[in-house]
Design goal:
heterodimer, A: alpha+beta, Four Helix Bundle (Hemerythrin (Met), subunit A), Helix Hairpins, Heat Shock Protein 90, six-stranded mixed sheet, 44% helix, B: 146 residues, mainly beta, globular
């Protein structure tokens, strides 16, 4: 019983695989209807299934494939033309076979569907073919043709001629033209014929199956677990080898050196070989695309030609599985939303048939996959509108994006629905899911598009998940590996820098990285490891989702390729590690999950929360809208911002015009008395460099921002005017000193937002009494 | 009369037993890599011929006294669906064979963590052999016990 199960499973596996090829062949046949190689292959697959079914006792499937085979043999013999109707019917046959196979797989039974209509159509086509061809000369003509093509005089016409129904049992004849090169086995098959013809259908099927599989006989099915185990052992062997090499010079003596070198070499090759066993060509996924594209295009009333390049490009099998859905999705999108209807295409001066091409090629340890179409492209303008309409972004924000940035908005979660996207000739159905899936395997995805010219989605994925380049760091005496793909740069901090370079905003550590505030996460404290003093440290700048943060570690040890191994089930709930690896000294090191770590440290989730709260109330928070800001130098040479809305004028006044009235500094300005507030006097100094009283204070001219509140004006003396910008402030943090409302990054620099009201209140307490009090 | 074989483990002053079929192998003390943020009973990870194995401190799991630092624990490797797990024990004793009828379920007064993890005891001439329910021992996520 168990043995039968094994045979059935093998049969299912092989049949499913073969049917995939059949799909591809049938679609190809539509463009090259007479191609014998393709017809032969299709025939053979159906024939093999029929034969094995007889053997295994699947009567329904046998009956169905028998009908199908009849039509296919007539197609092959040129008695029936490969019309669209025939193509549709044969594809229907393939689907029906699959359905039955799936039923067998699930229940062990063939199921109840009997496909009456399909069988009738097949029978009708067969009859039609018989009417077209003159039945009496059929065997003769076929034999003659076959001999002419393959040039095999020793083929056995007597056997064939004596058969009452030679078609199903006869092995496929050799293809025309290049046949001898591609399929060297026809003579062997002919030798098999006498036995096969005498045996039952089942036996014939088995014999046929055997001959078919000569093409793939060099392949063996191996349980994946065996491969994984081999991987583990090879990893161990490599480590042992490394250990030996380390000892090599000193302890082993020269006699063993050559043996050691040999071991070294063999181990490396073995490792490479084992790695290769896990590799599979991307063609494995692409195989189903021709059929899918055909069906989808037909359903959409479009004409699409699929071109594929680089099917042989190999990827680790776990990655193949990971990109299957995203690729399918992208291909579907390209047809559904990318390629236009034939009429539209012609109207736009393009050929009626759209082009969809898939290209895969390796590039420096990565594999690139491109999915391109020559369809309508994505209009960034419409994406912007769509994003705003869906409340994912405010119009000012959207307007500020470059076209490329706008295009990438299609990856936003929640962007669009099929209907909406179709109406804008873009794509985006679940593009966020595509992005997530690709990023999960350390891949990257982006989109290029030209309106009217087409769209290309570029995917970059690592060759393998099992071995990744990683940065090895240490903190609190433990080593950790960080996937190199997340690492942007390293900043080393020594001695004094350590305490000074990392500033705090309300306790939250930040580092100024080229003018931007980089949130800092200390690995030691984040992982709740025992803290200890350190002399130096390194900030590993990491990318998590769309945010960057700096991971503070004690030291960077090395950069190396590591073998990723899963953590046991007990540690699944620890979200900051993706796995573990074994280091050169045979000890285990944990691999950090950068995204998980960022989430734990609230680097990522905060941002997301903020974004979603904005989504809910886009209009209510007027203050969050794009603001016009006056940028000026702060006393300690930093940068500060004042909302432009309340700035009446910018003036440069001679220092000599400043007068003192009691405790106030004033200046005569436009027929009025303008109180002056020197910002530098109002801000508690951060770096102990007061500006007033030093050289700057004695400058000839003062830069004055005339600020207006409720009809009253006040002059703010600032260090210098830098710029006026209109900006949506996306990153805000509370201010770190009095007189500063908050900090934010503006134009790539950390900028303090002046608390103007507060400063005025302190400097000129009665100022607001004079005004109408209509503060903002 | 059915007889069973148990691998015996010593923890503190107690003698525990695990069905001999349930033990993959016993290895001496290994270098451990600690796992920050892991449940407290997870002592760390060890490298078992290239396989990463989670080590559980069985003393802590059974809420016994902490092992004195100078006592280097041994690893009893148990296969489990989520990957092999190593139980850290003070010492591994010999294999004993016992009769079924020397077995008694735990007394009602046994409470807490031990209650769910100890099936019962075989009365040996000079000691009680406490039989571990390995599935429950490995089910660290069982909130009732930690």
């Amino acid at each position: 019983m168990a043995e039968t199960d094994g045979i059935v499973r093998e049969f299912l596996l092989e049949s499913f695989e073969n049917l995939e090829q059949t799909d591809t062949d049938l679609v190809a046949l539509e463009t090259q209807p007479g191609d014998r190689v393709l017809l032969d292959r299709v025939f053979r697959v159906v024939h093999t299934i029929k034969g094995t079914c007889g053997f295994l006792g699947f009567a329904r499937l046998e009956a169905l494939t028998h009908e199908g085979e009849g039509v296919l043999s007539r197609l092959r013999d040129g008695e029936l033309r490969f019309t669209p109707e025939v193509a549709g019917t044969v594809l229907g046959l393939v689907d029906a076979i699959r359905q039955i196979l799936a039923a067998i797989e699930g229940t062990g039974e063939e199921g109840d569907a009997d496909f009456v209509e399909l069988k009738q159509t097949l029978a009708r086509l067969k009859a039609q073919a018989s009417a077209e061809a003159a039945p009496p000369d059929k065997p003769v003509r076929r034999r003659g043709k076959r001999r002419a093509v393959s040039g095999e005089a020793e083929a056995s016409p007597p056997v064939a001629a004596t058969r009452s129904e030679p078609v199903p049992v006869a092995p496929p004849p050799s293809p025309p033209g290049a046949a001898p090169d591609i399929e060297p086995e026809p003579p062997a098959e002919d030798e098999l014929e006498p036995q096969a013809s005498g045996a039952a259908t089942g036996a014939a099927g088995v014999a046929e199956g055997a001959s078919v599989s000569t093409v793939v006989e060099s392949n063996v099915r191996v349980d994946v677990r065996v491969l994984d185990q081999l991987m583990d052992l090879v990893g161990e062997l490599v480590l042992t080898r490394n250990e030996l090499l380390r000892l090599g010079g000193s302890e082993l003596g020269s006699a063993s050196t050559s043996a050691l070198q040999h071991l070294n070499l063999v181990t490396s090759e073995l490792q490479e070989g084992i790695m290769k066993t896990r590799m599979q060509p991307v063609g494995k996924i692409w195989g189903k695309f021709p059929r899918m594209v055909r069906d989808l295009a037909t359903a959409c009333g479009k004409q699409v030609r699929l071109e594929m390049e680089g099917q042989e490009t190999e990827l680790d099998r776990s990655l193949i599985e990971a990109i299957r859905d995203p690729l399918t999705h992208l291909v579907r999108n390209a047809i559904d939303h990318g390629v236009e209807n034939p009429e539209e295409r012609v109207a736009a001066g393009k050929p009626a048939t759209g082009r969809l091409w898939l290209k895969a090629f390796p590039e420096g340890g990565q594999v690139n996959i491109q999915i391109s179409d020559d369809g309508a492209g994505i209009n960034p303008e419409k994406v912007r509108k769509r994003v705003v309409a869906q409340g994912l972004m405010r119009s000012e924000q959207a307007a500020r994006l470059t076209s490329q940035e706008a295009l990438n908005l299609i990856f936003l979660p929640g962007f669009s629905t099929a209907e909406n996207v179709t109406s804008m000739s873009g794509r985006g159905v679940g593009m966020d899911v595509v992005k997530t899936n690709i990023e999960r395997v350390n891949g990257l995805v982006d989109v290029e598009s030209e309106v009217g010219g087409g769209t290309t989605v570029n995917i970059k994925i690592p060759l393998t998940l099992a071995i990744i380049p990683a940065l090895i760091v240490s903190s609190a005496g433990e080593r950790f590996a960080i996937p190199q793909s997340s690492v942007l740069e390293l900043v080393r901090l020594m001695g004094d820098q350590l305490s000074e370079a990392i500033e705090r905003i309300h306790g939250a550590p930040v580092y100024r990285l080229r003018g931007r505030l980089l949130p800092i996460v200390d690995l030691t404290s984040e992982l709740e490891m025992p803290a200890h003093g350190r002399e130096s440290a390194t900030i590993v700048v990491l990318q998590a989702d769309d945010r960057q943060f700096g991971l503070l570690v004690d030291a960077v040890i090395d950069s190396q390729e590591i073998v990723v191994k899963p953590l046991g089930g007990l540690l699944e709930r620890v979200p900051v590690f993706v796995g573990a690896t074994i280091m050169g000294d045979a000890r285990v090191a944990l691999i950090l999950d950068v995204l998980g770590l960022a989430q734990r440290a609230h680097v990522v989730s905060e941002e997301h929360d903020r974004r979603s709260s904005e989504d809910l109330t886009p209009a209510a928070e007027a203050a969050e809208e794009a603001e016009q800001l006056l940028l000026c130098r702060s006393p300690d040479d930093g940068r500060m911002a004042i909302p432009l809305a309340q700035v009446a004028r910018l003036e440069t006044l001679p220092a000599s015009s400043v007068e003192r009235v009691g405790s106030e500094t004033v200046v005569q300005y436009r027929g009025d008395i303008l109180p002056l507030i020197d910002i530098s006097e109002q801000l508690p100094e951060r770096r102990g460099r007061p500006r007033s009283g030093d050289g700057d204070g004695a400058a000839e001219n003062l830069n004055v921002v005339v600020y207006s509140v409720g009809g009253e004006q006040v002059g703010l003396v600032v260090g210098g005017i830098v710029d006026i910008v209109e900006e949506v402030v996306t990153v805000r943090r509370p201010g770190s000193r009095d007189g500063v409302k908050e900090c934010a990054v503006i134009r790539g620099k950390v900028t303090e937002f002046l608390d103007v009201e507060g400063i005025i209140r302190r400097a000129v307490p009665r100022f607001f009494d004079r005004g109408t009090g209509s503060e903002r | 009369m059915a007889r069973r074989q148990y691998t015996t483990l010593v923890l503190d002053k107690f003698l525990f037993g695990i069905e001999i079929e349930g033990v993959q192998e016993v290895i001496r003390s290994q270098e451990l890599t600690r796992v920050p943020l892991a449940p407290p009973v997870v002592e760390g990870l060890i490298n078992l011929r290239g396989q990463i194995v989670t080590a559980i401190d069985l003393r802590r799991r059974l809420q016994l006294a902490e092992r004195p630092p100078e006592l280097r624990p041994m690893n009893v490797v148990i296969p489990s669906p989520g990957g092999a797990v190593s139980l850290l024990v003070d010492r591994v004793g010999e294999v004993v064979e016992v009769d079924d009828d020397s077995f008694e379920p735990p007394p009602e007064t046994l409470r807490g963590a031990a209650r769910v993890m100890i099936r019962g005891a075989h009365k040996l001439p000079d000691a009680l052999l406490l039989i571990l329910n390995v599935d429950r021992v490995l089910n660290v996520s069982d909130e009732t016990v930690w």
